[in-house]
Amino acid sequence: MNSFWWGSIHEGRGGIRWMKWNLLCKPKTTGGIGFKNLHAFNVAMLGKQVWKLLTNPESLLGQIFKARYFPRTSIVEAVLGHNPSFVWRSLLAAKHIIVRSSRIQVGSGQNTLIGSDPWLPDADNGFISTSLNESIVSAPISSLMVPGQRRWDYDAVADLFDTRDRNLILQIPLSSRREKDVWYWMADPHGLYTVRSCYRLLNNYVNAPTSGIWRKIWSLEVPSKVKTCWLTSSLGLIGPQPSFLNWLELVFSCCNKEMCNLVAMICWRIWHRRNEKVWNNKVCSVRHVLNSAGNYLFQWQTARQKSEVHNATCFQGCHGAICWTPPQLGWLKCNGSFATLMGFLWRLAVHLSWVVLVQGMLKRLVFKALTASYSCPNGYGLILDDCLALAKSIGDIEFSFVRRSANTAAHVTARVGGSLSGFEEWNHVPPPWLFTSL
Q: Superkingdom of this entry's organism (predicted)?
């Protein structure tokens, strides 16, 4: 693939490979081009089939594989075995990443074993680390709950497990509305396996640090080849800056957007003329390089503006400012910010005796879960299921997502409310800090 990307049949010679293929496969925000790593993508695709065997073992395919390769165990403990087929060998290549990045969300706890399954909410190790008796290892998780109730037996958990396991167990929320123990995928906020999330996990892109310089480079209003060809060079720069990338960071911090566009074009023309000198022995003046860079940028931006005007004409009427609207007759409307929603979920979690409410939920993720017909298999799903059940018990309730421009008053109130020391109420006259938002 690398030779195909950089290769050339011009004059019967191959092209220069300015970057390694593994660097080209890095995301644009970390200095790559964003090409797919084909091996990792293939493993992620195979992982989807392993996920189906894990979450739906009663399917026809799951029963066939179980009868052939792991009749006395589960897919988690399955091994290659004797005389394996090419399909089974391929699936096992992806099994380790699936098991390592999946956990079991406890429902009734009757189908999950204490010492054999990954059910602890720990990103590094989901298995019990405490040395236990064999009878406890093979016992179901339901034996750690109060009989007849859906809550942990604190005394039993404290007596059997070490500090690490005890704290993790007590963090797991339990809900009487979910009977089945289900698998969830930790690399996705919904808890559902996706090829994209597995691919990012295989390439360590989930928490990879990103540099602001790369986002600025890709946001430049210049042709795409200008963004790529100069950045692939490892050529340094004579001067106080140790590298060309450091020099670019200095330029972006000192120049406006138009000047940055022109700087990028000039760099590209210098790179282009440098190659002409090295390979074809063609020389041009500095004035010619500057004029050609400015002219090329002007022509490209003019053509781009015409295209944008045409697209805006085609979609005219589809955009507009979003303003607050009153509710329909007979309805009450309650505007709240995302902080208000998180506060409501927190109060619900405390009311249900849940120890920890996992942070990091996105606004649209919460809204989608509250309005969609599916249920997230992870801990978020338990919380949101109880929210929906509470809303259903009240009666006619609808959730809607609006932009901040139509919800300014609620947003400001939530921000100020976080700094108030006690409870305050305004019945008729709003507080002074709210006047500008009404």
A: Eukaryota
